[in-house]
Each structure stands twice: as C-alpha cells, then as structure tokens.
Amino acid sequence: MNKLAPQDEILLVRQRPADPQTRTQSMARSVRRWSHGQAVLAWLFLVLILVCALGGPSITPHDPLAIALSDSFSAPSLQHWLGTDQIGRDVLSRVIFATRVTLFIAVIVVLLAGGLGSLLGIVAGYFGGVADTVVMRLADIQLALPAVILALVLAGAIGPSLNSLILVLTLASWARFARIVRGEVLSLKMRDFVLSARLAGASGWWIMLRHITPNIVGTLVVLATLDLGTIVILEATLSFLGLGVQPPLVSWGGMIAEGRGFLNNAWWVCISPGIALIITVLTINILGDVLRDRLNPLIPETW
Questions:
Q1: pLDDT digits (tens, 9 = 90+) for 165-187
Q2: Considering its fold, how many domains does the chain have in total?
Q3: What's the domain range around 267?
C-alpha cells in the first residue's frame, strides 16, 4: 500500500473537520468576547447619560428654553451641533436637559413600583391564602392589559402632570415585581433557615424582614434594571401623546412629537431625541442582561 507524502499528510490534517466540542467552545469564546465588548460600551454610554442627567442645564451649550425666532430651523453647525427647532431653541441643549427629566421619572417609578410590588409579593408568597389570591388576581388583571393601554387610560382619566405621570407608571408596573418576588418567596420560605426561625418563635413579619428580604435583593436589582428601560419608553410614549411631561419641562417624547411635522425640512428636530431614546434604552437593557447573568442567572430573559 502506497504511503502518503509528508505534505499530503499535512494537507489531510488541515482538511480534517474540527471536533464539534472544539467548535462549540470557539463559538462560546466569541460570544463572551462580543458580550464583554457590549458591556464595556454600555458602561461608557451609561457614564455619558449620567453626566447629562446630573449636569443638566449647567453643561448645556445654550439655554434649553431660550427662544430665538431668527434662528428657527437652523441646520446642525458648529454653533448649534444638533440644529434648532421651530422657535430657535437649541436641540442639543434640550436633549441633554430632557435626560434629567426622563431618568428622574424612571428612577422614581422603579423605586415606587418595585417597593409596592415587592411588598405585595413577599406578603402573598409568605402568608398565602386570601392574601395570595387577592394580590395575584390583581396582578393578573394588570398584566392582562398592555402597559401602554393601561397607562393611556389612567393618564387620560387623571390628567397630564408630572405627579400623575409618576402615579400612572407606578400602577402600570408593580405587577411584574409582585409576581417574580412571590415566586422567590415561595422557594425561600421552605428553606432550613426560615423553618429554624419559625421554630425559634420568630414572627412572620420579622422573618420576612430579616431572612427573606436580604435574599431577594439581587433579584430586585436585576428586575429594577430591566424594568427601567420599559419605564423610559412608556414615559416617552405618554409625553408624545401629550399625556406625560408638560412644558416648560422637556421630554424626549414631547420633542419627537413637536418635530414629527418637520421631517422633510428639519429632520434633526425629531431624529435627535429619538436617537437619544434608543441609546438610553439599549444601554439599560444591556446592563440589565449583564446584571442578570452576574447576580441571578436563574431569571429568564423574558418575564
């Protein structure tokens, strides 16, 4: 039988198909590198967003509320980097100023909805019975309605204002926290440390405060981060429809609504706040995925 030449043996080795496990490991490394790059970019954008939110009007190149009719619909230039709107207000300054308003509303709503939903979820999961039935049926009713529709109905009934917007978004967001937290509590209350506390004579409220709540903090952080992007979109939607933030406050949704009629001759008025909204939501969602993988990988990607 003829032997292969050395160069032919090398060629056969090179043409040999890769081991499936090797290919899987290579793909996993590629995914991890891509995820790491996304996370780094998201953290950089988060720093930029926080600088805009904390700096507010102090870092804007122009007064976001100043009107200059002679400069209306000025195209992007060195003086106005993102141009001006229909009454001469600097678009970049208004986008930066709106960052503070949007994040303030989103953070307050997440704190209120997370606190209310977590409290109801802990009570329902630990005590069960009537409390569990009532809370879960209310959560089912709330989750059966799309959040946007529910927010529109409530905002239309209460009226547009900053306080009513926060209340509406809170009522439209608490059920997600309550359902996830209840599931965590149902698992935790059967653990040995909780059963030992019961045998020691600890009250139910003390057990919930001292033993259960600290063990769901990681879950709450992940849920709050993932919910923050949803709140930002809901706030922009209501402001776009005139039921959210009212002048003189500035909102990305309101800016998009003002500029939608001028897309043909002044596209920057509408596109600039839209890009800011997209970047903010993507940044929050990516960081939420990172925190989910690090703090609580058992939380599903959709809930």
A1: 888 889 888 998 999 999 888 88
A2: 1
A3: 39-295
